[in-house]
Amino acid sequence: MGGKYKIDKIKQEHTIIDDILPLLEGISIHPLVKSIIPGRINRRKGSGVQPFLRLKYNTSSGFKVLAKNSSSIQEVFIVTDDPDKLAEWLRKKDWVK
To answer: How far apart are CA 80 and CA 60, in angstroms?
Structure first.
């Protein structure tokens, strides 16, 4: 299968950095989440960092988070109609910093 495809609500057009997919799958179960779109990956310096997500800013269709592990950082866009409510839920679950 070439090109784009989705697993549940997660678009699989690009690679997803190691250990981040389970976090995104957990987020995708929330009924406010319409879609999760991973973006570009950049290398970063660091060692032994556990994977985590950091909220960045709201977009016209939801919000952007940065997914980080010890060697990479990836943009991830979460599509939702209520970004504030979803962000609050993510903070309560301790899935974002």
So the answer is: 10
Listed in sequence order, the residues at least 6 apart from 28 whose beta carbon sits closer than 8 Å to its beta carbon are 8, 9, 10, 36
Is residue 3 over pLDDT 60? Answer: no
Q: With 90 as the cut, is the pLDDT of residue 54 above it? A: yes
CB 21 within 8 A of CB 35: no
- Rounded Cα distance, 31 and 86, in Å: 9
Q: What CA–CA distance (Å, rounded) separates 56 from 39?
A: 14
- C-alpha distances (whole Å) from 95 to each of 1, 4, 13 are 31, 26, 23
